[in-house]
Amino acid sequence: MSVRSRKHLQEIDKFDLKDVHNNLNQLQVKLKDSLKGKKFLIVLDDVWNDNYNEWDDLRNSFVQGDIGSKFIVTTRKESVALMMGNEQITMDTLSIEVSWSLFKRHAFENMDPMGHPELEEVGKQIAAKCKGLPLALKTLAGMLRSKLEVEEWKRILRSEIWELPHNDILPALMLSYNDLPAHLKRCFSYCAIFPKDYSFRKEQVIHLWIANGLVPKEDEIIEDSGNQYFLELRSRSLFERVPNIEKFLMHDLVNDLAQIASSKLCIRLEESQGSHMLEKSRHLSYSMGYGEFEKLTPIYKLEQLRTLLPIDIDLRYDCHLSKRVQHDILPRLRSLRVQSLSHYQIKELPNDLFIKLKLVRFLDLSWTKIKRLPDSICALYNLETLLLSWCADLEELPLQMEKLINLRHLDKLHLSQNVSDRT
């Protein structure tokens, strides 16, 4: 791709997402103009949508590219490949030799396998049991890389989990989960609250863990402990780095594992089936959009709920939270430790809202239109993290903020100078 082409694509990257969501046609025009007469390669990874009309709409954005331009699409869904209609390449599982090479690279990264012949022999047998599946190989290798006792490797090889009647990859992932110490099991299973393909920030996850008491308060700084937990889970390939940005995600199958591990205590509202599952849940997320009161009405009796996390999957930037939610639903959730209203277009909150939510430890009001915080926020004696970044309309803070005696983290990025000075 030419330097000029890169410049055009950089301009596309800078295109205001708010404008995109107000009028998607603007993005199509921008793409057509920027790529007109240029040869390009577009890679769409892990596609699940097999709606032909939506695919055709997307493809029309690139019709003015030069001859020789290409799309590469990867998918695990046969109907997607058939819908594309062009040349298809079916990927086979890895050969025994390649499987061992991949396993060896991750399991013996810090040592020479030739110096550990017993581990190498058992490792080859474990690699064979992974049936050529890269995620299974990488996950188990990541788990074993810190274990030097051959008996620990043999225990994995002899495990009965290999015989479970699940898909081929789940036994390997379950072995990796079972090997986690108890504190990491709790932190990992909590991440079932995130939808598939959702990219999250490390700091976000650590704050959520801390707010729910999943990271013990010891002599060292608690955020450092949370960071260490995160790095340990990542070293076992349970978290993956999103290329080119400071975010992470879980593979779809790892997300499935987290949901199994959470025993339905951490769920997505859209995926809950009936009131029984909701009644059991302790941590809940949902997709932001329209009709929030109707969507959230089923949770108003969940007095045991610890986390309520709206997720702006579609980057709508125009989501509104009705006053009925603020007055009739949120105050009933008296066990909340985590409350996020981030990205809602709210300008004010009920004055007495936080009087009834005294257990809240994490409060995210970032990217809202709020002009002032209610005085009742000063009643949140347990509050540890308050996120106010990008609250450009915030004019002042309550006078008695010093009552927040447990507040450790205040994010005030891009606040007005008057408000920043007062904090």
TrEMBL record:
Residue ranges occupied by any Disease resistance R13L4/SHOC-2-like LRR domain in the UniProt entry: 314-416
Compartment annotation: Membrane
Keyword Repeat among UniProt keywords: yes
Superkingdom, natural source: Eukaryota
A Pfam family matched in the record: WHD_DRP
Membrane topology: Peripheral membrane protein
Start and end residues of each Disease resistance protein winged helix domain: 193-258
Regions crossing the membrane: none
InterPro entries: Apaf_helical (IPR042197), Disease_R_plants (IPR044974), LRR_dom_sf (IPR032675), LRR_R13L4/SHOC2-like (IPR055414), NB-ARC (IPR002182), P-loop_NTPase (IPR027417), WHD_DRP (IPR058922)
Keywords, sorted A to Z: ATP-binding, Coiled coil, Leucine-rich repeat, Membrane, Nucleotide-binding, Plant defense, Repeat
NB-ARC domain sequence ranges: 17-110
PANTHER family attached to this UniProt entry: DISEASE RESISTANCE PROTEIN RP, OS11G0481150 PROTEIN
Protein's name in the database: NB-ARC domain-containing protein
